[in-house]
Design goal:
The protein is mainly β and 579 residues long. 7% of the residues lie in helices and 36% in strands. It is built from 5 helices and 35 strands. β9 (136-142) and β10 form a beta hairpin. 43% of the residues are buried.
Length: 579
């Protein structure tokens, strides 16, 4: 896979990525076996450099042998290779064969049950010499590993998501906004699109309808659709572990009249429901599961639902089920913790038979931090594990699992200063990404997204603040946390100046996900047992200056560390221990 690091919008890393991005990508460049003068075999690795139009955003491998590769760039162009990356062609203009249209590629989605099927979410517009036409969302489908594409669907108000069925190749959940979502009272002023699609004409005819979010089911990869529900907020397929892959969970507004509001605040008007899809593909009737259930997550064997207690005070109660939604029990925090009065919380991990929960803090002195709680095996009784965990304004937490080992986690925490308050630069308002709410239910826990088992991780902007941030590690599933033991010497063999001081004054600190635009976060891979990499520094706190940031590696799951190279680098683990 491609590098876990995300590049900045501009600067040296961006310029380097434009030229060297493909050097990271070509994991399997052709090898030539040559005969030397002595008759012995010698191997030579050939590297081919490919210059792209802009930085690499995403890389997706297709085909039975991963021989086909789709690559998207920052300028929303699509590149394609069918020989494991040795030759490339830009495919953006050939996705849609109409000569009067142009497209921008938003996202590539790989089918989980057939690696030859890919979904392309795009924005398309008609070329016009007189007026600038608006971009409209369209979806394209490939069933031959990205070689050819056909249009699946396009709606004026946006196809917001495509969630493939875990096992059924041709099934998927799709949603779009329909009705008069632009506030235009005259349907005759609908945006201009290609006129040969009957579905678009039908959407124009419905322009007088209230604006609402529809949940649809396709059983033929986007050729036909069946409506499952309307006024929907979130949705997801059921749990694979509980053999509920043909069940669709969703939250929706109880009153199905008027224009639908986006869920930016907790409300008692939204409920948690589900629909059973028969083997024939016919949907049953929607069944209410939890009244006032606003947001939910299906992760592993757990279903977690946030139900509203008081929409005026904005308090919620977390309900948890471990039996496929038959019984929900309230999450119980330690005595004296009170209700979940915070507006946002994050499910960090459910992979080891327990729920690791991050609850954000809204208090003035601990802005953009939160507390971490770990549940029992039922996911209902919680104990506090860590405080002041770093959290971005978009909700990403600097917390990750060492995926090749059990019970090992790393996190970044804020150490309050003497006054007990944080830098004023952190007191900016928190942006509520309402447009992404519907996708969160199927994204999986945060560690799933970071290691490719869920949806795409949201890109959190780095915050170069003056907080005292330190990195900690736990080897017993959050029972105890300790600072990272620093290397004895750097990569030049020189001892660190603070080496004789205690860990609180001299330890290793690594950048997390909120620094993604500047530095690669600490990272591990299931295929590389015990190996962890990160960028950071040795000292009393995490530094953000480039001259203070170096690249480090651990080969024993974070117990000991070595400075791999001076400077901050992008890295990735390859097959069989390659780096």
């Amino acid at each position: 896979t491609g590098s876990r690091a995300r590049d900045p919008a501009s600067g040296p890393m961006d310029r380097a990525r434009r030229v060297l991005g493909l050097l990271l990508l070509l994991r399997c460049i052709g090898r030539a076996i040559c005969q030397d003068a002595g008759g012995e075999d010698s191997r030579q690795v050939f590297i081919k450099e490919v210059v792209l139009d802009s930085a690499v955003v995403d890389i997706v491998y297709l085909g039975k042998k991963h021989e086909c590769i789709l690559l998207t760039t920052k300028s929303k162009r699509l590149y394609f290779s069918e020989d494991s990356g040795q030759t490339w062609k830009e495919q953006t203009g050939s996705v849609d064969t109409r000569s009067d249209t142009e497209i921008l590629v938003e996202r590539v989605i790989l089918n989980p049950s057939d690696k030859s099927v890919a979904i392309l979410q795009t924005k398309r517009r008609k070329r016009s010499r007189t007026t600038e036409q608006p971009w409209q969302p369209f979806v394209y489908v490939s069933e031959d590993s990205g070689r050819n594409w056909r249009m699946a669907w396009g709606k004026h108000h946006g196809l917001h998501s495509w969630i493939s069925h875990p096992t059924q190749r041709n099934w998927a959940l799709i949603s779009w906004w329909t009705g008069n979502c632009d506030g235009d009272k005259s349907p005759s002023k609908a945006p201009e699109v290609s006129g040969d699609e009957e579905d678009e004409d039908l959407d124009n005819a419905r322009a007088k309808d209230p604006c609402s979010h529809r949940l649809m089911l396709t059983r033929d990869l986007g050729q036909t659709f069946t409506q499952l529900a309307n006024y929907v907020v979130q949705f997801s397929w059921g749990s694979v572990e509980r053999e509920q892959t043909n069940r669709v969970y969703y939250t929706s507004y109880r009153a199905r009249t008027g224009d639908q509001a986006q869920l930016s605040l907790w409300t008692t008007e939204v409920d948690f429901n589900y629909i059973e899809i028969k083997k024939s593909g016919r949907p049953g009737k929607g069944i209410e599961s939890l009244r006032h259930g606003n947001k939910f997550l299906v992760s592993g064997e757990f279903i977690l639902v946030a139900t509203v207690q008081d929409d005026i005070r904005q308090t919620v109660k977390l309900m948890v089920s471990k039996d496929g939604g038959k019984v929900f029990k309230p999450a119980l925090l330690p005595s004296g913790m009170g209700e979940l009065e915070e507006r946002w919380y994050t499910i960090l991990d459910t992979s080891e038979g327990a729920v690791i929960l991050h609850i954000n803090s809204n208090s003035y002195s601990t802005m953009n931090t939160g507390r971490i709680f770990i549940s029992d095996s039922e996911g209902t009784k919680y104990t506090q594990s860590l405080v002041n965990n770093v959290r971005s304004q978009s909700g990403e937490c600097e917390f990750d699992k060492i995926v090749s080992l059990e019970g090992v986690y790393m996190a970044n925490v804020v150490i309050p200063n003497a006054e007990g308050v944080v830098s004023q630069s952190l007191l900016s308002s928190r942006a509520a990404a309402a447009e992404e709410v519907e996708l969160e239910a199927a994204d999986g826990a945060e560690t799933d997204k970071k290691h490719g088992r869920g949806g795409q991780t949201r890109n959190a902007k780095a915050s170069k603040d003056e907080r005292t941030i330190r990195t900690v590690v736990s080897f017993d599933k959050g029972g105890a946390w300790n600072y990272l033991k620093p290397p004895r010497v750097d990569s030049f063999g020189k001892a660190y100046e603070c080496g004789s001081r205690p860990l609180a004054e001299c330890s290793l600190h690594l950048h997390g996900t909120t620094s993604w635009d500047y530095y690669a976060p600490f990272y591990s891979s299931e295929s590389s047992v015990g190996m962890v990499m990160g960028t950071g520094n040795v000292g009393s706190r995490l530094r953000f200056e480039p001259e203070e940031t170096n690249t480090f590696i651990s080969r024993d799951g974070g117990l000991s560390w070595t400075e791999a190279h001076k400077g901050a680098f992008i890295y990735e683990f390859g097959d069989h221990g390659g780096l």
